[in-house]
Amino acid sequence: MTETNASLTDLLRPVKHVLLDFDGPVCSVFAGFPAPDVAQSLQEGLEALGWKMPEQGQVETDPLALLRLVAEHRPDLVSPADRRLTLLETGAVQSGRPNPGGEAVLRACAESGRAVSIVSNNATAAIESYLAAHDLTRYVTRSVGRTPGDPASMKPSPRLLLEAMSGGETQDFIFVGDATRDVEAGLAAGVGAIGYANKPGKRERLEAAGALVVVDSMDSIAAALEASS
Ligand SMILES: [Mg+2]
What we know:
The structure is a single chain. Helix content is 46%, strand content 12%. By secondary structure, it is an alpha/beta fold. The strands form 2 sheets. Strands 5-4-1-6-7-8 form a 6-stranded parallel beta sheet, with helices on both faces. Strand 4, helix 7 and strand 5 form a beta-alpha-beta unit. It starts with 5 loop residues before the first helix and ends with a helix. The site of magnesium ion has 6 residues, from loops.
């Protein structure tokens, strides 16, 4: 059953443009090609370029965290590492799993005259590939992935959000994300964040980070978008 959330409806009423995190709200990027396997493949590529992993890197199973490590230890290898990771992510989304309610939010935005931009730490090419494969491109104004070769652009930095909002008024936007770094990036960019608690324990963390509202399902956001149009 879709929950009705009065505060969520009120929050969404003035919103003209929804900013949506990708991995989590829209789909599970690494559902078919698990993140640790992607990290392993990225690491193998780096070893081929002659980089000996620091101890932390040897156990790093989050490919995006591994990219940050590369930037920290071998900035000269960030661009080739990012290119390799982009290819791996673009492969991974082919077996990515649509998230329940993700498409409903995209459709509810279209039906209520709201724009949608994807704002993600994943590569723009991977996001666009997923959207095209699932016939969702028409719902999305713009996809803003991490800046190629610059992992410092990734959330919790506000940079990607600011890029997606450029030329607009922050009060016209809301950001939906499933990680505390999303909420932190929103605060830093001056845009309110709705937390999507898709795992046990996330609600408390998202609330503590400063999410305006936390929901357990994307369908409740879709319902509130429809109710507030
Ligand atoms: Mg996410």
